[in-house]
């Protein structure tokens, strides 16, 4: 390749990154502003919870009659990455945006990363037609969309870029994709910074010395974080399977699920588990949580998403990890904020099989001083969380996959 052609190709991809970053970042900015608005509207109108079944029915009807091609969500992005077939429909972006806002407006327990990632992926893949890209370059576009969506919605560009690469790690990744993932992440991040959007800030004010005793305390807590991630993943899949088997007509699933959720939230005074739960996450860094809070969040989020409501899993995973770490501070002699921060990213690491991205995210959110504790927690939780994650289309291999396969074979041999 001559110099002129190389420069031309580089400029083309920088332009693509800029466009994806701008459009995905702007979509995420609009989404975050709208999400804050509907969340505040729900908080000031408690009776909205009784409209959750109606909202669920609306989501179900929308996807059943007009959105069957995009109902798989994040799993569709992963499937198209591994085996590119056809361009992801652009309607994925408005459908998941509307579905997520309805879910949060009426009190469903869900997150936001899935929405941003799906919007980013759908927007990015449209450039395959505009620039007439082949299947290999389409893979790069999907990575760029995931990177832009994740980086913009959480305000963590390094983690977003690495997450996009690590979530498809055991499929083929090109050097070009790796470099461009970072480029687009920063384009998307600074686009959101341009809009009047503010990300939640967390801090770990006290970092203990790195001693053998302190490092040993990380092991049991991180194993628990990994087991919580496993329970979260299996819970979401369980409820999804249960609704699918017992309610043949898809739009009725979120309708019936909404009825059950509305009565449960109201009669058990469980408002803290509605929506994102960010106030509870922030509180977990300074005040010990009840030992069962993380379990209830797993239950409500798994049920909400399994019933067919829209949203993401990552912020609920942050909730689960932070509240579990906060509760463990009663028994483990480490600072409460450190344990909450470790759980915040470690449970996410286990549920998505992305320990490197989660370690980097912890450093971006909490500071480099906590890097050793965060890194060890993410690695152990990743190993302890089993081979099933929140994305069933994700290819999982490597040391953890082989360890669990060997364990299952030995268990069958014993029988």
Summarize the structure.
The chain has 415 residues and is mainly α. It has helices spanning 3-43, 52-66, 74-82, 92-105, 113-125, 127-130, 135-154, 157-166, 175-194, 212-246, 252-267, 278-284, 293-307, 314-328, 336-352, 355-366, 371-384, 398-414.
Fraction in beta strands: under 5%
Main beta-sheet annotation: none
The second-level CATH architecture of the largest domain is: Orthogonal Bundle
The helix-strand sequence is HHHHHHHHHHHHHHHHHH
Average pLDDT, rounded to a whole number, is 93
Q: Which percent bin holds the helix content?
A: over 70%
Within CATH, the superfamily of the largest domain carries the name Clc chloride channel
Keywords: Membrane, Transmembrane, Transmembrane helix
InterPro entries: Cl-channel_core, ClC, ClC-type_chloride_channel
Transmembrane segments: 12-35, 47-67, 141-165, 177-195, 215-233, 254-274, 318-351, 371-391
Pfam families: Voltage_CLC
């Amino acid at each position: 390749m001559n110099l002129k052609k190389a420069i031309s190709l580089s400029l083309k991809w920088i332009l693509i990154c800029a466009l994806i970053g701008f459009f995905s970042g702007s979509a995420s900015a609009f989404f975050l502003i709208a999400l804050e608005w509907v969340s505040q509207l729900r908080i000031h109108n408690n009776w909205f919870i009784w409209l959750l079944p109606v909202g669920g029915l609306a989501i179900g009807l929308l996807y059943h009659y007009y959105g069957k091609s995009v109902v798989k969500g994040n799993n569709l992005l992963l499937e198209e990455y591994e085996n590119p077939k056809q361009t992801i429909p652009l309607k994925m972006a408005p459908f998941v945006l509307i579905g997520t806002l309805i879910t949060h407006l009426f009190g469903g327990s869900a997150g936001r990363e899935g929405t941003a990632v799906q919007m980013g992926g759908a927007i990015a893949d449209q450039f395959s037609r505009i620039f007439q890209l082949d299947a290999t370059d389409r893979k790069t576009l999907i990575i760029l969309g995931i990177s832009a969506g994740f980086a913009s919605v959480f305000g963590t560009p390094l983690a977003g870029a690495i997450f996009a690469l690590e979530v498809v790690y055991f499929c083929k990744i090109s050097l070009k994709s790796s470099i461009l993932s970072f480029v687009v992440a920063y384009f998307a991040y600074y686009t959101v910074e341009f809009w009047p959007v503010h990300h939640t800030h967390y801090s770990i004010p006290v970092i203990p010395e790195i001693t053998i005793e302190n490092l040993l305390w990380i092991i049991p807590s991180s194993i628990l974080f990994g087991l919580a991630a496993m329970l979260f993943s299996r819970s979401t899949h369980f409820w999804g399977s249960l609704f699918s088997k017992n309610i043949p007509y898809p739009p009725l699933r979120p309708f019936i699920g909404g009825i059950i959720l509305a009565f449960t939230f109201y009669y058990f005074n469980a408002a803290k588990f509605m929506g994102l739960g960010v106030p509870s996450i922030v509180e977990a860094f300074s005040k010990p949580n009840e030992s069962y809070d993380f379990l209830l969040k797993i239950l409500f989020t798994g049920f909400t998403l399994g019933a067919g409501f829209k949203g993401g899993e990552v912020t609920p995973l942050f909730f689960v990890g932070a509240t579990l770490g906060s509760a463990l501070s009663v028994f483990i002699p480490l600072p409460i904020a450190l344990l909450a921060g470790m759980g915040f990213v470690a449970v996410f690491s286990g549920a998505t099989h992305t320990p490197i991205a989660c370690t980097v995210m912890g450093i971006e959110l909490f500071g480099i001083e906590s890097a050793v504790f965060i890194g060890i927690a993410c690695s152990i939780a990743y190993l302890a969380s089993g081979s099933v994650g929140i994305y069933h289309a994700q290819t999982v291999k490597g040391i953890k996959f082989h360890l669990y396969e060997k364990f299952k074979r030995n268990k069958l041999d014993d029988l």
